[in-house]
Amino acid sequence: MQEEFQQTISQPIIFEGIGLHSGKLSKVKLLPGESNQGIIFKRSDLKENNLIEANYKNVTSARLCTTLENSFGAKVSTVEHLLAALYIVGVDNLIIEVDKEEVPIMDGSSKDFVEVLRKVGNKQLDKKRRFLKILDKVELEDNGRKISIEPSELDFEVNFELNYSNKIIGNQKNTVKFLNDNLEDIYSSRTFCLFKDIEKIKKSGLAKGGSLDNAIVVDEEKIINEDGLRNEKEFVNHKILDLAGDFLLSGYRIYGKVNCSGGGHQLSNIFLKKLFNLKNSFTVIGSANFKLSEKALVNQPQKQAVNA
Fold first, then answer.
1. Cβ pair 252, 132 in contact under 8 A
2. Which of 11, 135, 203, 265 sits in a 20 to 30 Å window from 119, CA-based?
3. 51-53 and 39-43 as β-strands: parallel, antiparallel, unpaired?
4. Domain that holds residue 250
5. pLDDT band at residue 296 using 50, 70 and 90 as cut-offs
6. Are 135 and 274 found together in one domain?
7. Whether residue 169 is found in the same domain as residue 80
8. Domain-located, residue 91
9. Which CATH number is 28's domain given?
10. N- to C-terminal Cα separation, the chain
11. Any domain includes 306
């Protein structure tokens, strides 16, 4: 059931772990937020100008992870798994204190975040949620990668397709409804990489903290991790998890159906920028007056689909 009122956590939570790309140990402290505040990162190791809003406009890099940066140059990276966990457990407002430049990768999924957040539980706030309801189809294609969003029922639905030449990953598809489906396979799915790409990634200064403890490593003919996969569609399910985290940077919970082929952090960010530039493609509604908004939309003239 979708909560009518905004939510935060009931008490502070602390996570510690290694950064996937920096290789540095970091501590994250989640603190309850106030109504209409949104998700705010705070670099606790910086004395001033250390607040970074979790917003798609603040994404300055989307290479292998999502990095946010404020106007003073304060950064926080690999935010997507924690943000996806917040989407899944229904947290709208939060202060996230980070004592380094990167959120810890934990086990490579959102599992640790989700389980602790659910154990602590949410606190209801006094303001009602606002939702972004998609009215018209919006599409984007970039170098063979495709993503679109279209009107749907009152849910955030994601249909994702992966196409890898690697025999193990291959072509994987899955469709998930975030409000109605069991999401355990989504939030427990880990990040992954090809064994042949590891050296190249590390030469570029990334994945310094990567290991079999926090990523699936795929060779040509096998999965190197001894325990194998957690679920049959773990590769595509992790991509869906990433997309959910990146889409929370819209600042809303979304009512719409996303179709994505070969996407990633960069494509999601480009798409959100396009979506918000097309003002007629969506409306912002409150759950309390949703029926009224729905009725009003029925009486509006039919709009044309917006295509890339």
1. yes
2. 265
3. antiparallel
4. 131-298
5. very low
6. yes
7. no
8. yes
9. 3.30.230.20
10. 34
11. no
Instruction: Yes or no: say if 150 and 257 are a contact pair by the CB < 8 Å rule.
Output: yes
Q: Which of 21, 81, 238, 265 is catalytic?
A: 265
Q: Please, which pLDDT band fits residue 307 given cuts at 50, 70 and 90?
A: very low
Whether 303 maps to a domain, the answer reads no
The pLDDT value recorded for residue 291 is 38
pLDDT recorded at residue 50: 98
Task: Give yes or no: 265 in active site.
Answer: yes
Mean pLDDT for 38-56 is: 98
**Domains identified in the chain, total number:** 2
